[in-house]
Amino acid sequence: MAIADMHFIKEFQKMTNDAWLKGWHERNGGNITYRLTKDESLCISGFIDENVPYKPIGVTVKNLANEYFLVTGSGKFIRNISLDLEANVGIVKIDETGENYKIVWGLINGARPTSELPSHLMSHSVKYAQTNGKHRVIMHSHATNLIALTFILPLDGVVFTRELWEMATECPVVFPSGIGVVPWMVPGGAEIAEATSELMKKHDIVIWAHHGVFCSGEDLDLTFGLMDTVEKSAEILVKVLSMGGKRQTITSQNFRDLARDFNVSISEEYLK
Ligand code: 2HA
Ligand code: ZN
C-alpha cells in the first residue's frame, strides 16, 4: 500500500482539513506533527529514502532517537494538505543522537519541516517520557478566541485554567491537568521550545500569548478534540465577557463534586 493510502495519512488529511475548516490555520499558520507507531514505521519502509543527509534540529531529543514523525511543511498551508500531500507534509527520521533529522519521504521540491520543529520535538520528548510513549501528536493552532483572551486575561496558567473550566462543564474532565501559558516570545527557535516543553511536563495544553496554542494527545482525534474543546470554551468566555461578564458560574465545590463523580483528579490550586 502506497504511503498516501495508509490509514494514519488519511486520518492526518481529515484532521488537518477539519482544523482548516475551524478557522485555526490561516495562510501558513499552525503546524502538526505525529509520531508513527512501530507498525507504521515498518509499513513505510519500502517507500522511503533513508539515503539522505541529516540536518540539525537545533535542540536535543535523545529519547526520540530513530523515531519517525509525520510533519507539516514550513511555509505550507494546512488547507492544501488534503489536495497535495507530498508538497505539504513529509516524514522525518531522528538520528541516534537525537540532535538531527532527515526527510525520508515527502516535502518535495526542497520543502522543509515546520519552523516550529524544535517546539514540537521537545514537547514530544517530554510527553514520550511522561506518558510512556502514549502521546503521539503535537498540534499548534492559531485558535482565534484563545489568542483573543491573551490580550485580556493575566498571562497566568491558573487563571486561564479556571476561567476556561468554568465555561463548559466537560472542560475539567477533558483537560484536568490545566493549561500553561508562555509569555510572548519570538517563535521558531530553541528558547520558545524550552519554555513550551517545560510547561508540557505539567499540562497537555500550552498557550503562546498573542500567537496560538499547543496541544498534546494520544492520537489525532483526541488532540483535535482537545483543541476543539479548549477553543470552544474560549469562544464562550469571549461571548460572556462581551455581554458584560459572568453573573453566575460553576463554583469550586461544583468542580470537586464533578471530579469525584467523573473520577478525575484536579489540583486544588485551581479551586480557590
Ligand atoms: O507559520 O504558526 O508559529 C507557522 C506558525 C509559526
Ligand atoms: Zn504559530
Automatic annotation (TrEMBL):
<keyword id="KW-0456">Lyase</keyword>
<dbReference type="GO" id="GO:0008994">
    <property type="term" value="F:rhamnulose-1-phosphate aldolase activity"/>
</dbReference>
<dbReference type="InterPro" id="IPR050197">
    <property type="entry name" value="Aldolase_class_II_sugar_metab"/>
</dbReference>
<feature type="binding site">
    <location>
        <position position="140"/>
    </location>
    <ligand>
        <name>Zn(2+)</name>
    </ligand>
</feature>
<dbReference type="InterPro" id="IPR001303">
    <property type="entry name" value="Aldolase_II/adducin_N"/>
</dbReference>
<feature type="active site">
    <location>
        <position position="116"/>
    </location>
</feature>
<feature type="binding site">
    <location>
        <position position="142"/>
    </location>
    <ligand>
        <name>Zn(2+)</name>
    </ligand>
</feature>
<keyword id="KW-0479">Metal-binding</keyword>
<dbReference type="InterPro" id="IPR036409">
    <property type="entry name" value="Aldolase_II/adducin_N_sf"/>
</dbReference>
<comment type="similarity">
    <text>Belongs to the aldolase class II family. RhaD subfamily.</text>
</comment>
<dbReference type="InterPro" id="IPR013447">
    <property type="entry name" value="Rhamnulose-1-P_Aldolase"/>
</dbReference>
<comment type="pathway">
    <text>Carbohydrate degradation; L-rhamnose degradation; glycerone phosphate from L-rhamnose: step 3/3.</text>
</comment>
<keyword id="KW-0963">Cytoplasm</keyword>
<feature type="binding site">
    <location>
        <position position="211"/>
    </location>
    <ligand>
        <name>Zn(2+)</name>
    </ligand>
</feature>
<dbReference type="Pfam" id="PF00596">
    <property type="entry name" value="Aldolase_II"/>
</dbReference>
<comment type="function">
    <text>Catalyzes the reversible cleavage of L-rhamnulose-1-phosphate to dihydroxyacetone phosphate (DHAP) and L-lactaldehyde.</text>
</comment>
<protein>
    <recommendedName>
        <fullName>Rhamnulose-1-phosphate aldolase</fullName>
        <ecNumber>4.1.2.19</ecNumber>
    </recommendedName>
</protein>
<keyword id="KW-0684">Rhamnose metabolism</keyword>
<feature type="domain" description="Class II aldolase/adducin N-terminal">
    <location>
        <begin position="10"/>
        <end position="238"/>
    </location>
</feature>
<keyword id="KW-0862">Zinc</keyword>
